Protein: Cation transporter
Amino acid sequence: MSECGCDSVCNTAPPDPGYRLALWIALVLNALMFGVEIVASLQAQSVSLLADAVDFLGDAGNYGVALFVLGLAPVWRSRTALWKGWLMVGFGVFVLGMSAWQWSAGIVPEPFIMGWVSLLALAVNVGVAALLYAHRQGDAQARSVWLCSRNDALGNIAVMGAAAGVWATAHGWPDIAVALVLAGLALTSGASVIRHAKQELRTNGL
Structure:
């Protein structure tokens, strides 16, 4: 098998120290923001903020996995990216379910908590995305990490918009609408990572 021979180990490029450091910073920041957002989402009763909190947790795990596979054979990086793609799809399905529950419960979230916390989250995610920008054109593993960071920043802007919509209308539908957008973003990005990873695996004869 190709992953057992020298081609899968000897030709593996050494990990980029700058990329490793960026991943460690991203891991710590995402773990911290998960804690902040999970508390804030419960206080605000916001499904879009909860979705963003769960996404922070998933991304912290993704960055941890990315650190683990640095320096491994390309086939293992592709397999990890495939798993992460399915995780992103699973996150999208979870958000869809939470949105349906929020709609049936008729809950109106607290917009000010949503707005301030999403602004903090945006600052964190823009910083992380900037750190990882130079590595976005790598293999499926690096691409999945970049997509997660980009999606997070876009998601934070959307949550801020939801907070403004809830404040202006005194209804919960803007919160649910943004949650649906986040779900769609996770589904499409996950599908993109899955396709990219499968293509790499086919190239390696797997």
In short: The chain has one domain: 2-203. Residues 74-105 form the longest helix (32 residues).
